[in-house]
Amino acid sequence: MAFSDFSLADLKDQFHVAIREDATLFADSKPAAISELLSTLLEDNIPLALAIDTEKARSEFIIAPIMAEYRRMWKGKISLFSGVEFPVDPQKGLSGTCDFIVSRSPEQFYISAPVIVLVEAKNNRIKEGIPQCVAAMIAARLFNEKQGNAVSSVYGVVTTGSLWRFLQLTGNEAMIDRAEYYLQDVGKILGILNGMNGIV
User: Fold this and answer.
1) How far apart are CA 161 and CA 35, in angstroms?
2) 7: left (phi over 0), alpha (psi -120 to 50) or beta
3) How confident is the model over 22-73, as pLDDT tens digits?
4) Coil, helix or strand for 20?
5) Residue 89 carries which DSSP code?
6) At a CB cut-off of 8 Å and minimum separation 6, what does 145 contact?
7) Would you list the DSSP string of 148-179?
8) Spans of all domains in the chain
9) Whose CA is closest to 198, among 102, 82, 118, 133?
10) What is the pLDDT confidence band of residue 164, given thresholds at 50, 70 and 90?
11) CATH of domain 3-32+77-199
């Protein structure tokens, strides 16, 4: 079993996680100012990614530039990992590849304190990516506990590139933000990510 094999029912049964689907998590987050570099990249890349219309194209041309901008905003205080294996507890199914992980450490050669996991939704279906994201968040919390890192909440993102949905795991409660954010609101998306990183 891997992150992508779980359903929300599996997660509730196996890890005793309560799922809240009506949370209002980030409505008050202030939009971040985006750089001219990101603005230019997205202006060029979005039509290309949408024309190719594959998960790989969306990841490379839309999601990766946004996450790289996010890392630049934090000026080396965080690390960003893409497409990495995260085998926290394979016997419990807490294993698999994470599309992106943000760690609250500047160490870029290894994952040390994950606080945000990002899952690219398969077949452009945000809802189907939510259980995978929650499973990866549970793994990140367990990883932090094993490493002795006191992180009160782990955050998650499920995205198609065009559409973004945010989650928060605190204790045994997984909260799914009821709002969805669109790519034209990239400043708001980055503002939410900054708010998540307020614990750093």
Assistant:
1) 18
2) beta
3) 889 998 999 999 999 999 999 999 999 999 999 999 999 999 999 999 999 9
4) strand
5) B
6) none
7) T---SEEEEEEE-SSEEEEEEEETTEEEEES-
8) 3-32+77-199
9) 102
10) very high
11) 3.90.1570
